[in-house]
Write a structure and sequence with these properties.
two-stranded antiparallel sheet; ten-stranded mixed beta sheet; alpha/beta; Isopropylmalate Dehydrogenase; 12 strands
C-alpha cells in the first residue's frame, strides 16, 4: 500500500518546489498525494490560514510536506486580520509537533559558496533542536492602543520532552542555549535541562551558552557544535542564521515531529520568495532534502532517504548550481540533475 503524503504547497515558490519534489519522490517509491490549502492562498480562498479540511487531512496522513507560506500581499499590523504564518503555527499545534529538527551540514561541493572561509565551516555537522509549541509564539497575547505583550512561558513537561530529543540525537554533546542571565523562564529552562541530563543522560556531555554568545560562536566556530537545544524563538533565529554556513538558505531542510506514530511535517527553511515566484528559477534542493527527512523520520525509509541525500550531493559535485548558489540552473534543471543521480 502506498504511503499517503499530504502536500501543502502554500505561497510564492512553494508550489514550484513541492511539485519538483513529488517528481523526485516518484522516482524513489510509490506514494499517494493529497493537496490542501495553507497560508496566504488559504486566506484568499477560505478566509483563514488553516482551513479545517487541511488540518483533518494532515491528521490522517502518513506525513506532510509543506512548501512555504507568506508574502507582502498579506502583511499587516492589524491584529484582527489573518496572517499566513498563523497557518504554520496552527498546524504545528494541531498535529502536536513539539520538536523541530534542522540539520546544518555544508556539502563539500558548496564549501566555497559560503561567505565564511572554508577553514571555518569545514567539518561542520550540527543539529538545531528547537522547541516548537511553547514560549512566546504561543503565549497569551495582549494589545491595546498604548501597550502590547507576548507571554513567554514553559512548563516542565514541555522542556523535558525537547531535552530528551536533543540528548538522544547527540553524538558528542548537547549545547543548551538560553538567556538565563536575564529571563526567569530561561533560568527555569536551564534547571529542567540539567535535571533531565543528570537523571537520564549523564554520559552525554552538556554545556550551556547564552543566546547572544551562541549566535557569535555559530559563525566563528560552527564545527564545535553537535546538537543545539533551545526554545521556540531562539531556535527560529539561530537555525536561520545557520543558513549562512551552507551558502544559501535554499539548502536547509527541516522536520517537525510529535509523539511516536503521529504524522510529521517536513519543509524547507527558506521562505516563499515572492520576488522569484512563477519564474521557474527557485532552488528545490532544500525541499528535496526535507523529503529525505520525511522518508527517514516520517516513513521509516532510511535507505531511500540516504539515496536521495546522496543524489543531491553528487549532483552538486557534478557542477549543479542554482542562481542562489552562484549558478544559472533553474528548477527543472536542478530536478533533472538529481534524478540522473538517482
Amino acid at each position: 500500500m502506498a504511503h499517503h503524503i499530504v502536500l501543502l504547497p502554500g505561497d510564492g515558490i512553494g508550489p514550484e518546489v513541492v511539485d519538483a519534489t513529488t517528481t523526485v519522490l516518484d522516482a524513489i517509491g510509490e506514494f499517494s498525494y493529497q493537496t490542501e490549502l495553507i497560508g496566504g492562498i488559504a486566506i484568499d480562498e477560505t478566509g483563514t490560514a488553516l482551513p479545517d479540511a487541511t488540518l483533518e487531512a494532515c491528521q490522517q496522513a502518513d506525513a506532510v510536506l509543506l512548501g512555504a507560506v507568506g508574502g507582502p500581499k498579506w502583511d499587516s499590523t492589524d491584529p484582527r486580520r489573518p496572517r499566513p504564518e498563523q497557518g504554520l503555527l496552527g498546524i504545528r499545534k494541531g498535529l502536536a509537533l513539539f520538536a523541530n529538527l534542522r540539520p546544518v551540514k555544508p556539502l563539500t561541493a558548496l564549501l566555497d559558496a559560503s561567505p565564511l572561509r572554508r577553514e571555518i565551516i569545514e567539518g561542520t555537522d550540527l543539529l538545531v533542536v528547537r522547541e516548537l509549541t511553547g514560549g512566546m509564539y504561543f503565549g497569551k497575547k495582549e494589545r491595546t492602543e498604548e501597550r502590547a505583550s507576548d507571554e513567554n512561558a514553559y512548563s516542565r513537561p514541555e522542556v523535558e520532552r525537547i531535552a530528551r530529543v536533543a540528548f538522544r540525537a547527540a553524538r558528542r554533546k548537547v549545547t543548551n542555549v538560553d538567556k538565563m542571565n536575564v529571563l526567569e523562564v530561561s533560568r527555569f529552562w536551564r534547571e529542567v535541562v540539567l535535571d533531565v541530563h543528570a537523571r537520564e543522560f549523564p554520559d552525554v556531555t552538556l554545556d550551556h551558552l547564552l543566546v547572544d554568545n551562541a549566535a557569535m560562536q555559530l559563525i566563528s566556530a560552527p564545527s564545535e557544535f553537535d546538537v543545539i537545544v533551545t526554545d521556540n524563538m531562539f531556535g527560529d533565529i539561530l537555525s536561520d542564521e545557520a543558513a549562512t554556513l551552507t551558502g544559501s538558505i535554499g539548502m536547509l531542510p527541516s522536520a517537525s515531529l510529535g509523539e511516536e506514530g503521529k504524522p510529521g511535517l517536513f519543509e524547507p527553511v527558506h521562505g516563499s520568495a515572492p520576488d522569484i515566484a512563477g519564474q521557474g528559477i527557485a532552488n528545490p534542493l532544500a525541499t528535496f532534502l526535507s523529503a529525505a527527512m520525511l522518508l527517514r523520520h516520517g516513513l521509516g525509509l532510511s535507505a531511500e532517504a540516504d539515496a536521495l541525500e546522496s543524489a543531491v550531493d553528487r549532483a552538486l559535485e557534478g557542477g549543479l548550481r542554482t542562481r542562489d548558489l552562484g549558478g544559472s540552473a533553474n528548477t527543472d534543471e536542478a530536478t533533472k540533475a538529481v534524478l540522473e543521480q538517482l
